[in-house]
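TODO from last week: model UDP-glucose/GDP-mannose dehydrogenase C-terminal domain-containing protein.
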Amino acid sequence: MEEFSKLLKLIEERKPKIGIIGAGYVGQSVARGALSVGFEVLCYDIDRSKITSINHQGIKNLSATDKFEDLKHRHVICICVPTPITKKKKPDLSILTKILTKLENQLQIGQLIIIESSVAPGTTRNLALPILERSKLKTGEDFFLAHSPERIDPGNFDFTIQNTPKIVSGIDDKSKKLAIAFYGTFVQKIVPVSTVEVAEMTKVLENTFRLVNISLINEVAAFAKASGIDIWEVIEAAATKPYGFLPHYPGPGAGGDCIPVLPYHLIDAAKKQNVKLKIVEAAARVNETQPQKIAQKAIQLINGKTKNGSPKVLLVGVSYKPEIADTRQSPAIKIWQHLKKSGISVVFHDPYVKQINGSTSQKLTLKTVESCDVVIITTHHKKIAYRQLLKNGTPIIDTRNIFENLNHPNIHRI
Ligand SMILES: NC(=O)c1ccc[n+]([C@@H]2O[C@H](COP(=O)([O-])OP(=O)(O)OC[C@H]3O[C@@H](n4cnc5c(N)ncnc54)[C@H](O)[C@@H]3O)[C@@H](O)[C@H]2O)c1
């Protein structure tokens, strides 16, 4: 039987062994999906604490390793490693390249390799394929290569890998069919697309769309504020339009490793085609300056008058979004850096983040609030009793509109 039919049969019989490379948010989410239909899953990671934690969970059919060669006999391998940007905002594909090179050295006949990491259009075909074909195995015949960008939304308990439609494509028809069959076992709706470039671009577009809209609303919010117009009321009114308007809300800026990062992959890919993405570039700039604006607002409010001799700010919420502990690219951390540069000390409270920047999360007591000159609400965690922040006269910068229509002299909206 040819390799394609053999693997398809294994998948249909729920018998393939799955390998996950990179057991982070995405890797563990794919692992959960595969486990849910009885696949045996092995995660490979370089982070020993992740390996120990996975192996200690004692979940049936799930194990983790730091030995790459253990992946050798996996039928389906999902690559879920980071694809960050450098300090100069250029895509950094070094981890992905390293993984592909290791795979090339032990690629087996009949394996399906799926890239789940977010990448710019062209990466699967122009980076991954040539590296894997150095093995002398041929895609579509000996091995299979697909791309299926991950769409998980950490902290969102309504949408999981199972009920979020999954974009899937392959380098060739057989690779695509196998990837569709694999995800089809545990994802309710598969969205097959014609090429891997369409799949890659779909993810990049989704994130860029978010960044552009978040930056747009932050820019317009600044104008509304200057004009004495309540932007939140404006958004609520605009959102009554039954078509053509999708509400986005002002805040301290978009964070995380996706929304502020992937548009730079797009900008870079477009530059290589001599296309300048002016709106995307502007949106990225607006997003980068937003934390600084919030820090400036705090400095203005302190205005040289401090309660305890040296200025201090309390950040409420340091993760980049509600109900998670992830602080990557968090605007709160950027606000912290700006304040620190201006000689302002910072303490924080976050029910999900115990320690960061050498500081420990403070209890949200009256004493903590009183000891600070300004409070900045940076993340909207449901667990926090925000009302208690109003119990003394400390000014509050409410970047998330927590207090909605409450008119209180301490509250400063953005
Ligand atoms: N987090 C999200 O919300 C999200 C959503 C969709 C897509 N993505 C994309 O998925 C990819 C992974 O993101 P993530 O959030 O899971 O990242 P993560 O940092 O949570 O996990 C990545 C894992 O890869 C491991 N790793 C790093 N270098 C490695 C190497 N050389 N070999 C093996 N493992 C290595 C890390 O130790 C970590 O456990 C990225 O491309 C990201 O853009 C993330």
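Done. The domain at 290-413 is CATH 3.40.50.720 (Rossmann fold).
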